Each structure stands twice: as C-alpha cells, then as structure tokens.
Amino acid sequence: FVSRAERRRARGDTRGEAEVRVCLGDLGGADLQTRLAGARARVELGETKGAVERLKVAAAELQDKGRAADALRLLTEAAQFDAEDNELRRLLVQAYLSRGDFEAASLFATTARELRGVAEELFRQGREEEGINVLRSAADADPEDSGIRGQLARLLVARGDMDGARALLTPDVAESDSDLLWTL
C-alpha cells in the first residue's frame, strides 16, 4: 500500500493517494500516525464525518493513555472539520473545563445546559463575575429556561443589582420562585 501511495503521489494523483492513506488508516493494527493520516485523508476526499469520528476515537485512546493534551489537539482539529458535531463540542467543553480553560470551554459550549455547566464550575472556583457572564449567555441561549433565569436573578439580587434581576423576571420565573418575586 505504501508504494502504491508513493506512485500515485509521483504522478500527481492526490485523490488516489488520499484513498490509499484512508485504506492504510483503516487496516486493523495500524499505528496511531497511520490512522491519523487516514482520517485526515478522509477530509481531502470530502468525508468529514468519517474523519471526525476517527479523530474522536484516536483522542479517546490518547486520553486513556494519559495524553490529555494530545487528545485535546485532536478534538480541536476535528472541530475545524465539523463544528456542528454535538458530541464533539461536548467533549471539547469537558476537556477544556478539566484544564481550567473556561474561556475556551465557553467557546465550544452552545447549549444553555453546557453554558450553565461552565458557569457552575466558575462559581465553584470563586470566579463569580465570570460565572455570571457565562450564566447570562446560558439565559440568552434558552430564554425559556426559568431555572437559569431564576438562578441569575438571585445572584444579581445578592449583588444588589435589582434592575438586572427585574429584567430577568418573567411570569415563569416569578411562578417558580415566589421568594425572588417578593424580594424584587
């Protein structure tokens, strides 16, 4: 296979070379570098979903071997190929949170639930201002989530920002938290 890829490269057949690299990467027992080359060749062939799946598998293997930084690099590379992959985004959020990189985690967190998770971690670390900002993003991501809006409003009340808290008060939030309504 390797000589076949070299011959195709020599004659300028980049698609043919990529197809051979995919075959090599899919062989049982292929080493990590060969599998990665195969995954990247899939991108050249327009098979981004398959490439992303293979990169996620390789990242999981690296993570299991204690190579978290290398795993994160592969996941980040995969996100360049398919930023809409929900599982990939979730993995990136978790990986960046575990490293304490909340800014990067927030970039990949797009759902209210993911953003709330980032905010909770920031609050655990005593980074209230940043947590509130991320929680605001979570409230924006899902305006119907009265739990997030209520939590944010309570935090704002505790800081003395009554106007900010009132702006979050909707009938659903007020209904679910009568103490907050009374305070405001």
Strand portion: under 5%
Secondary-structure element series:
HHHHHHHHHHHHH
Sheet with most strands: none
Beta-strand segment tally:
0
- What is the general shape? elongated
Helix content: over 70%
Distance between the termini: 72 Å
Continuous helix count: 13
What's the alpha carbon Rg, rounded to whole Å? 23 Å
- Low-pLDDT sequence parts: none
- Write down the overall mean pLDDT: 87
Structural class label: mainly alpha
Describe what this molecule looks like in 3D:
- This protein is mainly alpha-helical.
- Helix content is 79%, strand content 0%.
- It has helices spanning 2-10, 14-26, 32-44, 48-64, 68-81, 86-99, 102-108, 112-124, 128-141, 146-158, 162-168, 171-176, 178-183.
- Helix 2 packs across helix 3, helix 5 (68-81) packs antiparallel against helix 6 (86-99) and helix 10 (146-158) packs antiparallel against helix 11 (162-168).
Which features does this protein show?
79% helix
Map the helices and strands:
Elements (H helix, E strand, L loop, with lengths): L1 H9 L3 H13 L5 H13 L3 H17 L3 H14 L4 H14 L2 H7 L3 H13 L3 H14 L4 H13 L3 H7 L2 H6 L1 H6 L1
Helix pairs in contact: 1-2, 2-3, 3-4, 4-5, 5-6, 6-7, 8-9, 9-10, 10-11
In short:
By secondary structure, the protein is mainly alpha-helical.
